[in-house]
Design goal:
The structure is a homodimer.
Chain A (H helix, E strand, L loop, with lengths): L14 H8 L3 H9 L6 H14 L5 H8 L4 E6 L8 H13 L3 E6 L4 H11 L5 E5 L5 H10 L2 E4 L8 E4 L1 H14 L4 E5 L6 H16 L3 E5 L6 H13 L4 E4 L2 H13 L9 E6 L12 E4 L2 H16 L10 E3 L2 E3 L34
Chain A binds a DNA duplex (30 and 30 nucleotides) through helix 2 and helix 4.
Chain lengths: ~350, ~350
DNA sequence: CAAGGGATGGCAATCGGTTGCTGCCCCCCA
DNA sequence: TGGGGGGCAGCAACCGATTGCCATCCCTTG
């Protein structure tokens, strides 16, 4: 009865198999891979040859158990379908890959609940965590950071390493741009209240406007999505201004679309500036003037910072890393025109209906 | 000297700690969680209470080593920055999460090399794999499938479970739509040669056109990106037709933009239909008529199929799952106009420069 | 009252590497 | 010739949970 050994789905060879085939001890095989100098060069070579022949691959689970080195990093993003994260993910994955790490990207669907759940699941698996635009409270983040090295992206915390875009400088450039075009009052379309970046951008706007002697106004909060922008357009229509800066590009694209439907012309009637320079901001109508975040770099930099934390001689640099933003002028901004709402009196609104999630009805 | 026990970064409690605190054996603690009926209800309750108090969390690595259950699934996508995948990722992550699995999303940057490397790294960690738009050869995929249950998305293989959009039906609808608008010749703008979907779409176009007595033409291959579309516009300009169907939306948006820069009006001069209904296809200029793939469902369905494979009584349904596509008519298609190239004679092209990756120059 | 059996809990092996320590061999140098 | 030391390989414990098997205990039943 013992000629047919029980088989599992995939009996890949182990160091024990390799050891037997080579006539050495398992520990020697292990060291042949993980500590090359520790074993005779010839022996090591032979072991590696045989191992390759047998198709041996070291089992990451087994390695991770005693050492804790899973070679896994986690990146939690608020919303994978938000283009803001695309290049961040790319940059992070790439950086992780070249460093020999695998990136575990998880979507938390804009919910603190889901974020906690995902964290619970992921924390024990990974060596480090990047929280991109977390919706968690500072204290929740600290709890996580106590368990694994953690980096926050797009948010500043005093006791956790953070990587952010230089919002203040970017906002300053945007405001200057509008001022040069003759605008005197700027409406800020706010994003989620829980968002650190939103508060930061609004404050920076206030400051810049104050220095340049412009007026500001604020509407919101709105969901940072196309649909949110559509809603913002309706609110904005009550007290319009000639210039708008939005929390992010999605909101900007949405508000442009909403205003256009109401009969406004962009940029002739209203100039709009977004934030982040996401995918699509260059081919929307009109192409959007926006404060470009160094997205890819943001992701890559976060990984590098995290990896640095992982090193035994933890550097502990806690000053937030400020990555430069850049104003990209496209076609949604223009010299201030004479006309303000109601737009409909000037141009009949192209009649068309839009569903609540921002799609055209057939 | 032994009062200060060596500490590791995070000594989370183990079943041994819990066992000691409860005065029972570790195995009992283990069973209290994994096999509730097997241990006295009171004991189990007490153990669970103490465990909760101590903040015990079962270590997934340790559990996975003997059992092989990592509760991890892998989703490999050709390009995370391609919006085609956004909703697929969402759908897949969501489905995995509710099933108690964590999804490991990996970007392979459109390269078979990178795909292999990522697979090597990921295969031993996960219980199953979803290959979305793989650039691998059939035989490479089979090798992977031998190691772990594997599902291919957007590609049909006879011996591996696959989930695809019903391209033929979708293409048929698109061609009918163009025929109704009076178009007689359709140019197909091809995507990557290695793409199964590209071949499928082109064949379906041929068939549909044949039945409806239309002419077809084919240009390409082009990279399935905005930049690819810009290049396609130049090629198309040599032998223009009044209708274009592209391999995907990105290509469609790119070619629309390219043609517009050359002075063509869309849809008056050229009607364009894309494929996939990606993020952005509704707010580009003009909003794109496209064959909508059930993206979110595609992802969710793939996960469900994979999970089914994981069950011990493997169903082994090998007929590819065809998910229905839908034609979304927006504003990039219109009745065939009288005018063909050269466009420039009719309308002076708005002079503007575009960088090779499709951004406007400042 | 004894045999049988279900309910509970413990023992110990196991998953596949890693690593501290030991032991052996050989070479070098005094 | 003997002692010291470096190079190399093996032994065995360990990471933390799972699980087959055995030992108890107590209750039931003939």
């Amino acid at each position: 009865m013992d000629e047919e050994p029980g088989w599992r789905r995939q009996a890949s060879p182990t160091i024990y198999d390799v050891a037997k085939a080579c006539g050495v001890a398992p520990s020697t095989v292990s060291r042949a891979f993980s500590r090359p100098g520790r074993v005779n060069a010839e022996t090591a070579d032979r072991i590696r040859r045989v191992a390759a022949e047998m198709g041996y691959r070291t089992n990451p689970l087994a390695r991770a158990l005693p050492t804790g080195k899973t070679s896994l990093l986690a990146l939690l993003v608020a919303d994978v379908t938000n283009p803001f994260f695309f290049e961040i993910i790319r940059g992070a994955q790439e950086a992780a890959r070249v460093a020999g790490y695998t990136m575990l990207v998880a979507d938390v669907e804009e919910s603190a609940e889901a974020e906690k759940e995902v964290l619970d699941r992921v924390v024990p698996l990974v060596e480090g965590i990047i929280l991109a635009t977390s919706r968690l409270s500072d204290s929740s983040i600290r709890v996580t950071a106590k368990q694994r090295p953690t980096i926050v992206l797009n948010r500043v915390m005093t006791d956790i390493p953070s990587v952010v875009t230089d919002n203040a400088r970017g906002m300053r450039r945007a405001v200057e741009h509008l001022a040069e075009l003759g605008h005197t009052t700027i409406t800020y379309v706010a994003g989620p209240e829980a968002s650190w970046a939103d508060g930061m951008r609004w404050r920076s706007l206030r400051e810049a406007a104050f220095e340049l002697e412009l007026q500001t106004r604020r509407i919101g909060p709105f969901s940072p999505t196309l649909a949110g922008g559509l809603a913002a357009a309706r609110t904005f229509d009550d007290r319009p201004t000639s210039a708008v800066i939005t929390y992010n590009d999605l909101l900007a694209i949405g508000i442009m679309r909403g205003l256009t439907l109401m009969g406004a012309r962009i940029p002739a009637d209203v100039s709009v500036i977004g934030f982040d320079n996401i995918f699509g901001s260059d081919f929307c109508t009109p192409p959007l003037t926006t404060v470009a975040a160094p997205l890819r770099n943001l992701g890559a930099f976060a990984v590098k910072t995290l990896l640095a934390q992982l090193a035994p001689n933890a550097p502990r640099g806690l000053r937030p890393a400020l990555l430069p933003a850049q104003l990209i002028v496209r076609e949604s901004t223009a010299r201030k025109g004479p006309r303000l709402a109601p737009w409909a009196t000037a141009a009949p609104p192209p009649q068309r209906s839009v569903t609540k999630d921002g799609n055209w009805l057939p």
